[in-house]
Amino acid sequence: MTPTTFFDALWNQYTKVTPQAYNIQQLFEQQGETVLNDHVAFRTFNHSPISLEKLEPQLDALGYKAYGAFLFESKHLKARCYKHTTDVDAPKIFLSELLVDELPQSCQEIIGKLIAQIPANAVQTPAIFWAEKLWQTPTQTDYATLAEHSEYAAWLATMGLQANHFTVSINHLKKFSTIKEVNALLESEGYALNQVGGVIKGTPASCLEQSSTMADKIDYTFADGSQQKIPSCFYEFARRHPMKNGVLFDSFIEGNADKIFDSTSNK
Ligand code: OOG
Ligand code: NI
């Protein structure tokens, strides 16, 4: 599978649950822009048939190599980032996993029931990255228990493995040179932006500025038949700056990422 085939399939699945991303991309295109993606992100459970280490070979097969590692202690997450070895315009990939064993016993039991349903050999092709749920829908009670301790766990239990966000590369836009201008456009169109720690995460001095929408909401039916609106996926915007050596910063920043995760918060 080529990166182009991979990202096309991923985008098709992502925009089905994230109509705002399609609409925002259209908005930029109506202004004469061609939207390039800086990165996409995925979430998963550790110690499972779809753990980070089980998924990694599929990224290798697409021509990607890991180049950074991150830890989010209070969210009980670890993450790695990947870039394509030859295609500089291919989006980077941010892959995080929940350290399930660090959550309370009640959550471990709920997640254990989900993980037990995933076939041991679930990871065979890159199509695993848009598999969505590989387990039965949780009950609303289990969802609430997870959400109390980990918004990430609650999101993953309901949404499963899929692109959690795509990210517009502001560097590749012609008419928008700052992230402020991008945010102003989004706000004027009525999109809700993630306000955690301020709308813009990072500074030019830290070489990476990011903002994101709050996730779209979808009608979700739980195992017990009850319905609730829950967060699906969001859209991100990133502006990269050169480091002191003149090279464009191409990694991620824990302090920014920690706040971007909250774009799927249901509070
Ligand atoms: C990933 C959050 C981190 C970034 O660009 O730093 C991130 C997630 O929400 O799964 O996307
Ligand atoms: Ni991101």
From TrEMBL:
The keyword Plastid does not apply. Keywords: Dioxygenase, Iron, Oxidoreductase. Its cofactor is Fe(2+). GO terms for molecular function: dioxygenase activity. Pfam families: HGLS. PANTHER family: 2-OXOADIPATE DIOXYGENASE_DECARBOXYLASE, CHLOROPLASTIC, DUF1338 DOMAIN-CONTAINING PROTEIN. It comes from Marinomonas algarum. It is an enzyme of class 1 (oxidoreductase). This is 2-oxoadipate dioxygenase/decarboxylase. Its EC number is 1.13.11.93. Belongs to the 2-oxoadipate dioxygenase/decarboxylase family. InterPro entries: HGLS.
